[in-house]
Automatic annotation (TrEMBL):
Residues 1-19 form the signal peptide. Residues 275-355, 427-507 form the Cytochrome c domain. This is Cytochrome c oxidase subunit 2. Its main location: membrane. PANTHER family: CYTOCHROME C OXIDASE SUBUNIT 2 (PTHR22888:SF9), CYTOCHROME C OXIDASE, SUBUNIT II (PTHR22888). It comes from Shewanella piezotolerans (strain WP3 / JCM 13877). The keyword Translocase applies. Its EC number is 7.1.1.9. GO terms for biological process: ATP synthesis coupled electron transport. The lineage of its organism: Bacteria, Pseudomonadati, Pseudomonadota, Gammaproteobacteria, Alteromonadales. Binds a copper A center.
Length: 525
């Protein structure tokens, strides 16, 4: 009998005593919140073990000592006020004991105030887009597991399906606030080591935060069933020391400038068909194959085939437009901010000549950049900047020399001077709507209604009905202590003027104000 009791006790308490060493148990993580969550988890586990011990102990005792073979006679009673009170009060007390630490942990998890850094995380099928507020750094993060491993023709790597081309880089010892949204369906950003798991809903903004204690690489994935390739949407976070993170930010800005100059220089280059097809195939396999399949056949009823499709047979300009701007109401994303003009030209060329299409069309970067329907395409894939003239010298591809740097600077100044020309109201509204739908819609919504309690409505708001100069100031410089970032380094004066004009005249605002680039350029001077 004693041996049986010992076995029962061992079965009940072993999970609790060795929980921290069990591979299937929750991990402690690398943040204060994750440690609180782990502690809460263990407290509840211990309470459950204690309840199990009492309940099963009483059951086993009753079965052994009050069995029929020992002549036990069942008691005959109908009600007991004491028992009724006991089994009501005791569970109530247990729930209160559990609720106190749980409430403290939940309140701490939902407090993103006083953050040192804010990052907007946007999910889309099937990638993550990270934008560092007030740092002019943004990029897409895609799974980098080779297709051969997925198809089983190569051995799977150590971090199979949990590796990306560009990890999210964060500093340790700084509070980081996350603003999460989605461009298409519901996703969920989940990193177990941080105890952060928050849904990214289209049209809404959710908040979360973390403060990492030690450097390292931490992995997670989308935790919401978001489509056929849901399992191919990993998250990788690289935590750096504060000094290393600051150096990383500087390096990213410099790399973006270099990439911009190189991409603009590439606009004057003509690639051969072989070069376009080789580069286009690489981009297609990385960016397009998930939907349209490696053989271009698509998925009937879900994603269209590209083999002999009307888009392939139609005008090149229409093909470029759908790749650059996407197609509203479908899963076709806009790649204007994700790919350079050269990469878009290459993938369009590949699609028009692969799988027996053989159109013979050879699309160049200049065709993409100069296309009238695609003013948002830029040399770099980070913002909606001005497209420099195709006459930019090829030497500008190497910004390391002072001569090239001066050439690029002079060209940029020429472009800046050119874009200060006044535009008509129709031109401002058309450009402003495009800029708004790329840069502002995630927070303020397509109808300008915002998200109550999170992002203000722009419909007849005080900023819209107030002086233009105040509207200019908040768009250019942002608003400290809020999620409103400054766009002075992300948009040109003409784009700033256009989006402000659009906001002041769309959705029934009808202020009649037509802001020009010269107004923006002179603001604050």
């Amino acid at each position: 009998m004693k041996q049986l009791l010992y076995c029962v006790l061992a079965l009940i308490f072993t999970p609790a005593l060795f929980a921290s060493e069990m591979p299937l148990n929750m991990t402690e993580g690398v943040t204060a919140i994750s440690e609180q969550v782990y502690s809460l988890h263990m407290i509840i586990l211990y309470i459950c073990c204690a309840i199990g011990l009492v309940v099963f102990g009483v059951m086993i005792y009753a079965m052994i000592n009050h069995r029929k073979s020992k002549g036990a006679v069942a008691a005959n009673f109908h009600e007991s006020t004491k028992v009724e009170i006991l089994w009501t009060v005791v569970p109530f007390i247990i729930l209160i004991i559990m609720a106190i630490p749980a409430t403290k942990t939940l309140i701490a998890m939902e407090d993103p105030s006083d953050a040192d850094l804010t990052i907007k995380i946007t999910g889309s099928q099937w990638k993550w887009h990270y934008s560092y507020f007030n740092q002019d750094v943004e990029f897409y993060s895609l799974m980098s597991t080779p297709r051969a491993q997925i198809e089983g023709t190569e051995a799977k790597g150590e971090h199979y399906l949990l590796e990306v081309d560009k990890p999210l880089v964060l500093p340790i010892n700084r509070k980081v606030r996350f603003l999460m949204t989605s461009e298409d369906v519901i996703h969920s950003w989940w990193v177990p080591a941080f105890a952060v798991k928050k849904d990214a809903n289209p049209g809404f903004i959710n908040e979360a935060w973390t403060k990492i204690d030690k450097p390292g690489v931490y992995r997670g994935q989308c935790a919401e069933l978001c489509g056929k390739d849901h399992g191919f949407m990993p998250i990788v976070v690289e935590a750096l020391s504060e000094a290393d993170f600051d150096n990383w930010l500087i390096a990213q800005k410099q790399a973006a400038n270099n990439a911009e100059a190189a991409a603009q220089a590439a606009l004057s280059k003509t690639l051969t068909m072989d070069e376009l097809m080789t580069q286009g195939e690489q981009i297609y396999m990385a960016r397009c194959a998930a939907c349209h399949q490696p053989n271009g056949a698509g998925l009937p009823g879900v994603f269209p085939s590209l083999i002999g499709s009307p888009m392939i047979k139609g005008p090149v300009a229409d093909h470029i437009d759908i790749v650059v701007n996407g197609k509203p109401g479908t899963a076709m994303q806009a790649f204007a901010k994700q790919l350079t003009a050269t990469e878009i030209a290459a993938v369009v060329t590949f699609e028009r000549n692969a799988w027996g299409n053989n159109s013979g069309d050879s699309v160049q970067a200049a065709d993409v950049s100069s296309d009238d329907a695609n003013p948002a395409v830029s040399g770099a894939s980070t913002a909606v900047p001005v497209t420099l003239p195709a006459e930019l010298p090829a030497a500008a591809a190497d910004p390391a020399t002072s001569t090239v740097t001066e050439t690029v600077s002079e060209t940029v100044e020429d472009v800046k001077a050119a874009v200060l020309d006044d535009l008509s109201m129709d031109e401002l509204m058309t450009m402003g709507e495009k800029v708004y739908m790329i840069k502002c819609v995630a927070c303020h919504q397509a109808a300008g209604t915002g998200l109550p309690g999170a992002f203000p409505s722009l419909v007849n708001s005080p900023i819209i009905t107030g002086p233009v100069t105040e509207h200019l100031d908040i768009v250019i410089n942002g608003k400290a202590g809020t999620a409103m970032q400054g766009f002075s380094s992300q948009l040109t004066p003409q784009e700033l003027a256009a989006v402000i004009t659009y906001e002041r005249n769309a959705w029934g605002n009808d202020s009649g104000d037509a802001v020009q680039a010269s107004d923006v350029d002179g603001h604050g001077k």
